Amino acid sequence: MSAVSIPSPFPRPVLFLVVVYFVASLVHFAHNAEYIALYPNMPVWLGRADVYLAWLAVSAVGIAGGLMWARGWQVAGLLLLGLYGFLGLDGLAHYTLALCSEHSLIMNLTIWFEALAGIALAGAACRHIVLTRVAKKRSYA
Q1: Cβ neighbours, 10 Å, residue 37
Q2: How many of the other CB atoms lie within 10 Å of CB of 126?
Q3: Cβ neighbours of residue 14 under 8 Å, at least 6 residues apart?
Q4: Which residues have C-beta within 8 Å of that of residue 70, sequence separation ≥ 6?
């Protein structure tokens, strides 16, 4: 009879931050897509559909992380979820095109909501990896 590996429950703080970052990223990308013409100095070739496709690509990283966790590869899953959150910093690239003061209040809020939620998710995922590794080392001692 073979032993079946049951994955440990998904860490609640990480799950909460995945949801928060998912919403933040959707809000920022949707606002960007719908008001692309108003965002200062955006490349003319970048259209509404391109922005939504970029959001789907970013979201695919988070989905892959969740699936890896569910398949029992917790560390790899958390690393991908950390990367998913870290991708939220890409929104700060808007400020390489125009100053913060050149963006509207809602533009700045969506950019910073995504960036801060992403950093929180990346930090929580990394923290959980470290805590899991420390707990495993202690259990072997």
Answers
A1: 9
A2: 16
A3: 78, 81, 121, 124, 125, 128
A4: 7, 77
Which among 81, 70, 66, 73 has a CA at the least distance from the CA of 117?
A: 81
Residue with the bigger pLDDT between 36 and 7: it is: 36
DSSP-derived secondary structure letter, 71:
T
Amino acid (1-letter code) at residue 136: K
DSSP 39: S
- Comparing CA positions, the residue from 129, 120, 92 lying closest to residue 18 is 120
Rounded Cα distance between 103 and 81, Å, is 29
Considering just the CA atoms, what is the radius of gyration of the chain in Å? Answer: 18
- Residues 6 or more apart whose CB falls under 8 angstroms from that of 30 comprise 52, 55
Residue 2 has pLDDT above 50, yes or no: no
pLDDT number for residue 7 = 54
Amino acid 10: pLDDT: 77
Q: What is the pTM of this model?
A: 0.88
Tokens of 120: 């929180």
